[in-house]
Structure formats: C-alpha cells, structure tokens
Request: fold
Amino acid sequence: MVSIENFRTMNIAITGASGFIASKLKAGLWPKKSVWMRLNRDASDEAWEQVLMAADVIINLAGAPVIQRWTPRNKKRIQESRVQTTRRLVSILNRLDSKRP
Reply:
C-alpha cells in the first residue's frame, strides 16, 4: 500500500475550508507537510489570484450548508452558492492561464 506521506509537500488552495469535508481532508488525507491556503469568499479576486498562482492543487468545497429544510428557496441558495464559486474560480484561472505554466 502506498502512503500519502511519501508524496512531496503540496500547496493546496481550498474554498469551504471550515466545512466538515475540508476538516477531514486537512486532518489526514494529504501529507502532513502540505500548506493549506484558504480562499475566503470575502477576499478580492486579486487575493485569490495570488493564492492560486502558488497552488499545486485546488479543492472547491464552498457552498451553503445542505443540512437544512430543502424548500425551493433553500435549494436555489444551495445551488447558486456552488455555481457562483465555481464560476469565480474558472474566471480567475482563465486569466492566470497565460501567467502560469
């Protein structure tokens, strides 16, 4: 069995860093030496660009909590929160494409 500890240190950019799944990822899935860089939803696109330029891996876990009553309003909020973050990431990554190999 291959141990994840054998892999090199990684710079990991993550949205939704305070959520349940992110906490489990940070606790044991990646090499202990990895650097976790939070992409805060309130930060500017320029701040995200800086983090993404240094990232080896990007994990998108942002979104409104799903543990709630699934009313039409809440379902829309859950979906939009995920779509908006993904669109923002893609937009920034497309701009960075020419700046980073």
The first helix runs from residue 20 to 29. The chain is about 45% helix and 15% strand. The mean pLDDT is 83. The CA atoms of residues 90 and 96 lie 10 Å apart.
